[in-house]
Amino acid sequence: MPALKEIVLATRNRHKGAEVAALLDGLGVTIRTLDEFPHAPEVVEDGATCEANAVKKAREIAAATGLPAVADDTGLEVDALEGRPGIYAARYAGEQATYEDNCRKLIQELSGVPTGRRTARFLTVAAFAFPSDGVHVTIGELYGTITDAPVGSKGFGYDPVFFVTEFGKTLAELSSEEKNRISHRAKAFGKLRELLSTIMVNM
Q1: Which of 73, 79, 133, 148 is the catalytic position?
Q2: 6-201 to CATH, choices 3.40.50.300, 3.40.980.10, 3.90.950.10, 3.40.50.720
Q3: What φ, ψ does residue 36 adopt, rounded to 5°?
């Protein structure tokens, strides 16, 4: 197994890329993005679960770039909507939907649902793959409720409508430092960071 010196982030989402890079900062490896690999494939996320999508992205990007790759997939499960939007969170309002479009659709679908029944869970699965080795997977969760209107201007995605009870704020009201301590993605990548540290020690 080659030494772990570089990792490619298997995403073209600049917001997610910046967040993941911050979560992995200090590992002593060079973090590269897909912007540096213009010929890397657009991975079709056709898995039935977040884990399937994350694993597929990590494997395909590792194979295409020849470097270890990290990928993640996040779902938003809203109890009152029987788990929707789930793995389709990023394209809930359509393939070309903006963050605002998705939040608007979610709020509309929950119209009339009382606060006590607007419970939801964010789930992030992070996957790490060497070009010719197995895949390692970690999971992070965050529980909260969906607001009836967007609140806050930080973050991205569903952050303005996801209320975190322990902070009394939406994710979009938290600083990046606060979010990177408690978010679903922070939990998944915190575990992945520990795993990568162990891998590096044993190389």
Answers
A1: 73
A2: 3.90.950.10
A3: -85, -5
